[in-house]
Design a protein that fits this description.
There is one protein chain. The protein is mainly α. Helices cover 33% and strands 4% of the residues. The chain has 2 domains: 40 residues, no CATH class; 55 residues, High potential iron-sulphur protein (High-Potential Iron-Sulfur Protein, Chain A, Irregular), CATH 4.10.490.10. It has a two-stranded antiparallel ribbon with strand order 1-2.
Amino acid sequence: MLPVVKKETSVEKCHQETEMKDRGKSKRISRRTVVLAAGATPLLAMVVTGARAAKLPQAAVHYQPTPKDGKQCDGCALFIPPNACKSVEGSIAPTGWCVLWVKKAA
């Protein structure tokens, strides 16, 4: 009896070539991975260091040094006595108001 010689089909050959290419890719870092890591790094740094978000300019929040509809900064949860705010930059009057106003918890 003669031995049967199996002839490699083009599909099998293509499959083998693909496997060989994939082996080389496993050691590479994809561009997507690099971009995701670069984007996540500043966020991770903020969490680890406890960094706070940048404060907004007074004009952006329509800050005014006078109360509005009985609401003023010294009654806001974001106000930091004597004249600062957690979310707005610059000097803040206790009698001032802006669109970020949130009633202090009782």
